[in-house]
Design goal:
Blueprint (H helix, E strand, L loop, with lengths): L29 H9 L7 E5 L6 H12 L2 E4 L8 H4 L4 E5 L8 H14 L2 E6 L11 H8 L3 E3 L5 H14 L6 H10 L4 H18 L5 H9 L12
Parallel strand pairs: 1-4, 1-5, 2-3, 3-4
Helix pairs in contact: 1-2, 6-8, 7-9, 8-9
Length: 233
């Protein structure tokens, strides 16, 4: 009798722990955590948080939101007309700023209003502010005056802790040898950790398999070709 075809699992959202105590603090991100923890006693009316995809910027902005009641919006919604509404709560996080995706006049007025009214603006980006290609001289001056904090590439302790947390969020029990095996063979980034754990989880559901070292080795052998784990129509 032929094997029953594999069933693709439903893409259900995973609940991730997003509280302050759930954030893993190591030397690579402690400056960013300190920035969030020190609010509202920032030296200025705003700050810039820089870090690669998956580094924890969104987690920290949600920790800040819980403390400040801030609005969190993408950079593309910033405009001069939107400024009063954006600062209605006296705090706003503008996420994922990058060249060409924000209105310079709007951001300039947002920073000015925050300074005048005692509000705070947190900007996040994967790109250094000097590379945002800002044309407006006054905005360049405002941005240069803001403290910029960087999340550095993950050290071993952070990468290990994030892998454990990602598996825990998906209710998958793993042991130390398995985590060490993965760390020696995977790309050294938190985005890669997130994608790899999601792939392992998905294939385990498809195959109804236990997440063992042998199983993970099979998945990681094809990590660069995740399409191998999809069932053709």
């Amino acid at each position: 009798m032929p094997d029953a075809p594999k069933q693709i699992p439903l893409e259900l959202p995973q609940r991730e722990a997003q509280g302050r105590d759930d954030f893993l603090v190591t030397p690579s991100n402690e400056a960013a955590v300190r920035l969030i923890d020190e609010w509202p006693n920032w030296p200025t009316h705003g700050a810039i948080l820089i870090g690669p995809a998956g580094a924890g910027k969104s987690h920290l902005t949600r920790v800040w939101q819980a403390a400040s009641m801030a609005e969190i919006v993408p950079a593309s919604v910033v405009s001069k007309d939107a400024v009063p509404e954006l600062l209605a709560r006296k705090a706003v996080c503008i996420e994922d700023v990058c060249p060409g995706n924000f209105d310079e006049t709007g951001l300039f007025h947002l920073l000015n209003l925050a300074r005048q009214d005692g509000g705070h603006v947190l900007l996040t980006s994967e790109i250094e502010p000097s590379h945002w290609q800002v044309q407006l001289p006054d905005l360049r001056s405002r941005l240069a005056a803001l403290p910029t904090v960087r999340i550095l590439p993950p050290d071993d302790n952070l990468l290990r802790g994030v892998l454990v947390k990602l598996f825990t969020d998906r209710q998958i029990a793993v042991d130390e040898p398995l985590i060490s095996y993965m760390m020696l063979r995977m790309p050294r980034s938190l985005a890669a950790a997130r994608d790899l754990v999601a792939l392992i989880d998905r294939e385990a559901l498809v195959s109804k398999a236990e997440v063992t070292r042998a199983f993970v080795a099979k998945v990681m052998a094809h990590y660069d070709s995740p399409s191998l784990f999809t069932t053709p129509p």
